[in-house]
Amino acid sequence: MPETRVLNPDSPDVLVVGGGPAGLSAARALADAGRHVVVAEEHATVGEPVHCTGVLAREAFEELSLPAHVILNELRTVRFHAPGGAEVEYETPTVEAVVIDRGALDAALADRARAAGVDLRTGCRVTSVTPHARGVTVECADGTSLEPRAVVLATGANYTLQRRLGLGLPSVFLQSAQRELPAARGGDVEVYFGTTVAPKGFAWVVPVARPDGPHVRVGVMAEHDAEQCFDHLIARIGPAWGVARPDAPPRRKMLPLGSLSRTYADRVLAVGDAAGLVKPTTGGGIYYGVVTGRLAAEVLGDALVADRLGAGDLAVYERRWRRRFRTEFGAQMALRMLSHRMTDADIDGLFELALTDGVMPIVRRSAKFNEHRRFIFELLRHPPARQVLFRRLTSSVL
Asked: Angle at which helices 344-356 and 359-366 pack, to 10 degrees?
């Protein structure tokens, strides 16, 4: 057996597993509070490989004090494509969303964390997390170990450690496949629906402005066969955008759409994607990752001072994120579950309403990039839309 050595004889207060926005935000907040924090990032470079479409609310930069230099371009117009061929175009009165360089965002957050005193270690893959009465034994793939007082799981959509700790898996998830590709020309965001395009999900094309010319981020979220759906999408949009079929396969991952059964254990908290805390409608997770990372830091900061780090003590973290996001997540999940039951004919019916029966005024009045609850509630109060949405649910129980 390999000899186990301690990476740092002065054991940290907190080990953060994962160097993405959620983990780095938690680490920096803890370090700012005077805590000794180590971040273990399994990859050699923070921010690589990228598994993210990188569309973020413009207002999040001010709210979360994110670095604005990572913005590549702004988004105002989106075209929605129905299974039957109908199209609906929507333009926001102001810029609500931007495309970011996700690698640059992670690198900037890493620099901020280091400046706050965080010990960031790349190429360090954590293989086990074992809480005990005095702390947590953390083993790494290279045979090294750490003994922090507490751990933050910020592993992204990888749930090996969570399952071993009894936290379970996300309550709802789909598959995703995506790539950023060079394009001959730019355009507006496009979103495609339908069982042959992306069963129980949707597909997207997002324009990206790079110094070397236009690119597009092409992706799908689907119940199954995400890579095959990706290939079909490339064939469909390739001529219009000037996108060639890539030689390498798309990046694939599990996309959580609902939280773990528990996001806390003895001396352990899970944040962001690692807790399944993303938008149930779209799977977007950067905003919620940063927010829950900071919430976890607040709870752990108090718990470390009091030296009360049991599951019962850390449960306040889950109460806090539920208090903040319960109604938003609940509304989005309700729409997600309804959409899973919809046929292509149902989706075409909603598009027909959008074109003829007053749905677009609801969108313009109530839709916001990071907050879908008001739009969903108003949509469900619109009698024709409600009839379409609930038709499939009613027929399934009769």
From this structure: 80
Q: What is the rounded CA–CA span in Å between residue 89 and residue 191?
A: 10
Strand pairing of 55-57 and 97-100?
A: antiparallel
AA letter at 245: R
* Cβ neighbours around 373 below 10 Å, total: 18
Euclidean distance between CA atoms 257 and 225, whole angstroms: 18
Report whether 86 contacts 355 (CB < 8 A): yes
Is residue 244 predicted with pLDDT exceeding 50?
A: yes
Burial class of residue 332 (count of CB atoms within 10 Å of its CB; 0-12, 13-18, 19+): buried
Residues β-bridged to residue 129? 138
Q: Summarize pLDDT for 103-125 with one digit per residue, the tens.
A: 999 999 999 999 999 999 999 99
Give residue 314's identity as a one-letter amino acid code: L
**Mind giving me the DSSP string for 22-85?**
HHHHHHHHHHHTT--EEEEESSSSTT-S-----EEETHHHHHTT--GGGEEEEE-EEEEE-TTS
Q: How far apart are CA 387 and CA 385, in angstroms?
A: 5
Let me know: does 318 contact 312? Beta carbons within 8 Å.
Answer: no
Task: Yes or no: say if 352 and 364 are a contact pair by the CB < 8 Å rule.
Answer: no
- Return the closest-CA partner of residue 41 out of 111, 137, 164, 126: 126
Which letter does DSSP use for residue 225 in this model?
A: -
Peptide bond into 9 cis (omega under 30): no
The pTM of the full predicted model, rounded to 2 decimals, is: 0.91
SS (H, E, C) 104-167: HHHHHHHHHHHHCCCEEEECCCEEEEEECCCCEEEEECCCEEECCCEEEECCCCCCHHHHHCCC
